[in-house]
Design a protein that fits this description.
The complex is a heterodimer of chains A (245) and B (260).
Chain A: E1 3-13, E2 16-27, E3 31-35, H1 42-49, E4 57-62, E5 67-70, H2 82-86, H3 88-92, H4 97-110, H5 127-139, E6 145-149, H6 157-172, E7 177-182, H7 185-191, E8 194-199, E9 204-210, H8 220-231, H9 234-239
Parallel strand pairs in A: 3-7, 3-8, 5-6, 6-7
Antiparallel strand pairs in A: 1-2, 1-4, 8-9
Helix pairs in contact in A: 7-8
Chain B: H1 2-16, H2 19-39, H3 47-59, H4 61-94, H5 96-111, H6 114-125, H7 129-153, H8 157-165, H9 170-208, H10 213-222, H11 226-255
Helix pairs in contact in B: 1-11, 3-11, 4-5, 4-7, 4-9, 5-7, 6-7, 6-9, 7-9, 9-10, 9-11, 10-11
Classes of the chains: A alpha/beta (245), B mainly alpha (260).
Bound molecules: adenosine-5'-triphosphate and magnesium ion.
Chain lengths: 245, 260
């Protein structure tokens, strides 16, 4: 069984402790979200899980056959146009140039990019377009485990919903497992099987919320209800300092 | 290939944008002619006389041979320092220790006046090809080296992580992620290295050889043959402008299209 297992993970940058005693398991087909305040160490956690940072203390075991990463800042290659950026991962897997371009164009269109954007360099794209290109680049390789670091933060609600639907479709077919970082509680509730609440200074998990209803069955009403519920939660209120002083 | 075609396709538009440059050249020639009228033919021959001499010179086989000799020396020295300078700069950039160790050496090489190199080279190699080529190499090498070094040192760590996360094989890492960035530093360095090589080759020839256009310039000076001297200067300037504006600049534009 493919799984990502994090045990007793601690991390510091120099003398600043960023993460303390993080434990969780992500099984195949699951969607695990991490929510928490800005600067709480979410990106650091994701980079540790994806082996982009060296684990100093504790264990990260990843047995997923393939992974890909959509970064918080899009990290596109500035000297490549939209399609060549998207096809990067496909080419790395050894797919032929022609085939990778066809697949990249297909996913670009599905992500709301237009034909006349295809030849543009990243400098000529809007922030949201860059984010979509980056997300497309991660999804087009059909990873078994997808790391998402706030991939929708620069998108309008329509686009957001459309991309979420694409993800939910894949989740429903059990094609993908996701470790998902977001600021947006509604988004987390719409997509996740489990939500980890990461409190900052140093980042540690204070609570887990589980949602059993299949993602496809969750309608707006369900999401609003659950969001309202979670916003009443003591831990949520204190973590995000929601209480009016 | 596609790339070369694009350069050719955009070329007419680029040329058209050169009208301003041409206007300023004509203005310069007008000022030159004024200088001639004030100071007389001996000090500053008129543009017309210079260009007449020039066209006579260009029909002369001997002059063409001299130009070829100079071209040969300059391109050999330039090519050598391009290859070695870029390669060593890349190597130094990839290893922190090497880049730290190379810094003082580069400072010395950059700071050392070329004329001092010419004197040393004359002592070491005598009068001839070697002296000239050596001087060209030591003068343009540091430019290439620093370009390659800076390009490599400024590689974006975030993009490296991205490459790692997609498990790019080494050749893709190099050609798709590292090279375009490094090249955007290297290419301008090559251009200024070329300008340097061209200036130094003339100077070295003037002092250290009996052939090449530098030497012709020395002869023209000793015979007070100002029109010939000016014609040689024109040859030097026009050829440098040709290389820079007709060949390198269009390439540079296409290469840097992705930049802000
Ligand atoms: N490379 C680094 N060197 C030193 N400190 C770092 C580094 N990367 C992150 N930090 C620090 O670690 C802390 C957590 O950063 P991180 O990027 O993980 O936060 P985050 O939860 O992703 O925030 P956001 O939601 O705003 O993206 C911050 O205080 C940040 O300053
Ligand atoms: Mg972050």
């Amino acid at each position: 069984m493919e799984r990502l297992e994090v045990k007793n993970l601690n991390h510091s940058f120099g003398f600043t402790e960023v993460l303390r005693d993080i434990n969780f398991t992500l099984k195949k087909g699951q969607v695990l979200s991490v929510v928490g305040p800005s600067g709480g160490g979410k990106t650091t956690l994701l980079h540790l899980c994806a082996n982009l940072l060296d684990v100093e203390e504790g264990n990260v075991t990843n047995s997923f056959v393939s992974t890909s990463f959509a970064f918080q800042d899009a990290r596109l290659l500035p000297w490549k146009n939209v399609i060549d950026n998207i096809s990067l991962g496909l080419l790395a897997k050894g797919m032929s140039k022609a085939k990778s371009i066809i697949e990249s164009k297909e996913i670009a269109l599905r992500f709301g990019l237009e034909e006349n954007d295809f030849d543009k360099f990243p400098k000529d794209l809007s922030g949201g377009m860059r984010q979509r290109v980056s997300f497309a680049r991660a999804l087009v390789v059909k990873p078994s485990l997808l790391f998402l670091d706030e991939p929708f933060s620069a998108l309008d609600i329509g686009l957001k919903k459309e991309l979420q639907t694409i993800l939910i479709d894949k989740i429903d077919k059990k094609e993908i497992s996701i470790l998902f970082i977001t600021h947006d509680l509604m988004e987390a509730i719409r997509l996740s099987d489990e939500i980890l609440l990461l409190k900052s200074d140093p980042g540690h998990i204070v609570k887990k919320f589980s949602y059993d209803l299949a993602q496809k069955e969750r309608d707006d009403k369900y999401v609003y209800n659950e969001s309202a519920k979670i916003l009443q939660d003591e831990e949520i209120i204190s973590t995000f300092e929601l209480a009016l002083k | 290939m596609k790339f070369a075609l694009k350069i050719l396709k955009d070329f007419p538009a680029y040329l058209w944008s050169g009208w301003g440059a041409i206007a300023s050249i004509f203005l310069f020639i007008a000022v030159w002619d004024m200088g001639n009228q004030i100071y007389g033919d001996l000090v500053l021959p008129s543009p017309i006389e210079t260009f007449k001499t020039l066209s006579l010179m260009l029909q002369d086989k001997d002059v063409l041979t001299e130009i070829n000799i100079t071209l040969y020396r300059a391109s050999l020295g330039f090519a050598f320092s391009l290859v070695i300078g870029s390669a060593l700069g890349l190597l130094a950039g990839f290893f922190i220790t090497a880049s730290m160790m190379s810094r003082p050496i580069v400072t010395i090489l950059v700071g050392m006046p070329p004329i001092a190199w010419i004197v040393l080279a004359m002592i070491w190699f005598g009068m001839g090809d070697e002296t000239v080529i050596f001087t060209v190499i030591v003068a343009s090498f540091p430019i290439m080296f620093v370009g390659a070094l800076q390009g490599t040192r400024t590689l974006d760590g975030d993009l490296k992580d991205m490459a790692k996360s997609f498990k790019l094989p080494w050749h893709m890492k190099f050609f798709d992620v590292y090279f375009p960035h490094i090249f955007s530093y290297l290419f301008p360095a090559w251009v200024s290295g070329l300008g340097m090589a061209w200036k130094i080759v003339i100077m070295a020839e003037l002092l250290a050889t009996s052939d090449g256009i530098g030497a012709s310039l020395a002869v023209a000076r000793s015979q007070l043959d100002t029109p010939t001297a000016l014609s040689i200067v024109v040859i030097m300037i026009v050829s440098l402008m040709f290389i820079e504006y007709i060949i390198l600049e269009p390439i540079k534009r296409e290469v840097e299209l992705w930049r802000d």
